[in-house]
Amino acid sequence: MKWIYFIIINVIAFSMMGLDKRKAKKKQWRTPESTLFLSAAAGGAVGAWIGMYIFHHKTHKSKFVFGIPVLVIITVGVFLYI
Predict the structure, then answer these.
(1) Inter-residue long-range contacts of 43-46, CB under 8 Å, 24+ positions, other chains counted
(2) Which pLDDT score is estimated for 33?
(3) Which of 5, 14, 25, 63 has its CA 20 to 30 A from that of 53?
(4) What is the total count of domains within the chain?
(5) pLDDT reading at 2 higher than 90
(6) Where, by residue number, does the polypeptide cross the bilayer (predicted)?
(7) Confidence band for 82, pLDDT divided at 50, 70 and 90
């Protein structure tokens, strides 16, 4: 069951990074940074991190460059613990 949640939340976080990048290019309404972080904190940190680099999105913002990897470590640790 935890694998299903882990996969789904990471696909969602990855997709959110891609959608926000597309909206940024089109100068449309954007996904708030707090929402991107919330999806990462909810277990989607790995997907968010991969999305950052695949889509080249938020890679110059220090709170993402340092914050998301910290959430990856926490998420993987919690996931392996439970």
Answers:
(1) 43/5, 43/6, 43/9, 43/10, 43/75, 43/78, 43/79, 44/9, 44/10, 44/12, 44/13, 44/14, 44/75, 45/13, 45/71, 45/72, 45/74, 45/75, 46/10, 46/13, 46/72, 46/75, 46/76
(2) 94
(3) 5
(4) 1
(5) no
(6) 6-24, 36-56, 62-81
(7) confident
Range of the domain at 48: 2-81
Q: Shortest CA distance to 40 belongs to which of 74, 2, 3?
A: 74
pLDDT tens figures, 16-25: 999 999 999 9
Q: What is the distance between the alpha carbons of residues 46 and 35, in angstroms, rounded to a whole number? A: 15
Helix (DSSP H) and strand (DSSP E) numbers for the chain: 4, 0
Average pLDDT along the chain: 94
What is the token pair recorded at 68?
């998301």
Give, rounded to a whole angstrom, the gap between the first and last alpha carbons of the chain.
11
